[in-house]
Amino acid sequence: MLTKRIIPCLDVQDGRTVKGVNFVELKDAGDPVELAAQYAEQGADELVLLDISATYENRKTRLDLVKEIARQINIPFTIGGGIGELADAEALLQAGADKVSINSAAYKNPGLIDELARQFGSQFVVVAIDTKNFEGVPTVYLRGGRDKTDSHTFDWARQAQERGAGEILLTSMDFDGTKKGFDIATLAELNEKLEIPIIASGGAGNIEHFIDVFKKAQVDGALAASVFHYGEILIPELKKSMHQNGLPVRI
């Protein structure tokens, strides 16, 4: 049985880690290089860095920051933000990324998923989806949650899988930053429809929330930010509790 993954996320803007609620009201959460080193030392299974303003500022992810973080960690490293073509992914790979996360660019050009999977392998390609409930329907949003689409979240996730995505990173905008728990209902339903791994994002507030999402939604990984950044949950304690609850975990 594959171990369940604990994944801290660094949302970076202007070289600093930030965190908000429902994608707004961003506050400083620390230096991304220092945080990355801490998480690797604490036993995080992977690390995700999202350059959250790259897409709407129409620029690339900062390679200098990626290189600096990559030197500090020895765990799989996923980068997202401003990736629009193969050359962008190649540059991040050379800078130290193990995987890339594509969101708005993949939706606007679904063929990018095919190209990345062919060039680098499906395991390199994470398709991130920001979802929000609109009139009772899980709906895809783009550009950091700014733009609503007409696509059902499950339909887009299935297409991403068919095109070669290695996993789906699903962030529930309704739950993001609320610390009330993950969107288990949506995650569980999506997991029934897909064959590739799903990473849950949005809503973690305590250790029980992680245990719930792994047991009830059967996701492969759980991503969180502020609860780790501000020391509200320590990764060693989280993993110990997961192990005690019968979840396969790397300790």
Automatic annotation (TrEMBL):
Q: Give the UniProt record's GO annotations in the biological process aspect.
A: L-histidine biosynthetic process
Where can this protein be found?
Cytoplasm
GO molecular-function annotation terms? imidazoleglycerol-phosphate synthase activity; lyase activity
Catalytic-site annotation from UniProt = 11, 130
Give the record's keywords alphabetically. Amino-acid biosynthesis, Cytoplasm, Histidine biosynthesis, Lyase
Q: Which pathway does it take part in? A: Amino-acid biosynthesis; L-histidine biosynthesis; L-histidine from 5-phospho-alpha-D-ribose 1-diphosphate: step 5/9
Q: Which reaction does it catalyse?
A: 5-[(5-phospho-1-deoxy-D-ribulos-1-ylimino)methylamino]-1-(5-phospho-beta-D-ribosyl)imidazole-4-carboxamide + L-glutamine = D-erythro-1-(imidazol-4-yl)glycerol 3-phosphate + 5-amino-1-(5-phospho-beta-D-ribosyl)imidazole-4-carboxamide + L-glutamate + H(+)
Show the stretches that span the lipid bilayer: none
Which GO cellular component terms, listed alphabetically, does the Swiss-Prot or TrEMBL entry include? cytoplasm
The main enzyme category here is lyase
Q: What is its EC number?
A: 4.3.2.10
Coiled coil (residue ranges): none
According to its UniProt entry, what is the function of this protein? Answer: IGPS catalyzes the conversion of PRFAR and glutamine to IGP, AICAR and glutamate. The HisF subunit catalyzes the cyclization activity that produces IGP and AICAR from PRFAR using the ammonia provided by the HisH subunit.
Entry-linked NCBIfam families? hisF
Subunit details: Heterodimer of HisH and HisF.
Similarity field: Belongs to the HisA/HisF family.
Q: What is this protein called?
A: Imidazole glycerol phosphate synthase subunit HisF
Which organism is the protein's source? Candidatus Sphingobacterium stercoripullorum
